[in-house]
Amino acid sequence: MPIMLKVNGQSRPLSLDTRTTLLDALREHLHLTGTKKGCDHGQCGACTVLVNGRRINSCLSLAIMHDGDEITTIEGLGTPDKLHPMQAAFVKHDGYQCGYCTPGQICSAVAVLEEIARGVPSHVQEDLTAAPRATNLEMRERMSGNICRCGAYSNIAEAMAEVAGVAG
Ligand code: FES
Ligand code: FES
After folding, report:
1. Do residues 36 and 97 both lie within one domain?
2. Which of 6, 8, 44, 117 lies 20 to 30 Å from 22, alpha-carbon distance?
3. Ligand 1 probe mutation, 26, 35, 39, 108, most atoms within 8 A of CB
């Protein structure tokens, strides 16, 4: 089936088997291998990308569901010469070890701060009617779908705190 994905600002026409996941379309067909396949079952978050500004697990979504959608992968967030602030903060705070989970962590972290800014409540928020704040607990809860086998969680939280402007 022919579809058109807008990936990192570029229109990318594809002809795909309708069973192809968005993750496989990005990695195997567009050769954007920054997005990682960890579990392929929606359990690890390594495949997180932004679709129309919202984060999703790309392994759980069929590519044909995204005809015309704007997709941002780690390759589209920043460049080596001009890193996205979240990428720069991950480097500064050593928010990774092996790096396999990192593209998904960074895409998710960017989305988390936008969710907090939009006032989307979370499971750990005491007052659901109050505006959420970018506390350490909030960020850890909202990032809980992104697993890091290397255990870089503390440094990831520090990187997010810096970008959120709440670094102590
Ligand atoms: Fe998609 Fe693990 S590869 S959640
Ligand atoms: Fe290795 Fe997260 S940095 S899995």
Report:
1. no
2. 117
3. 39
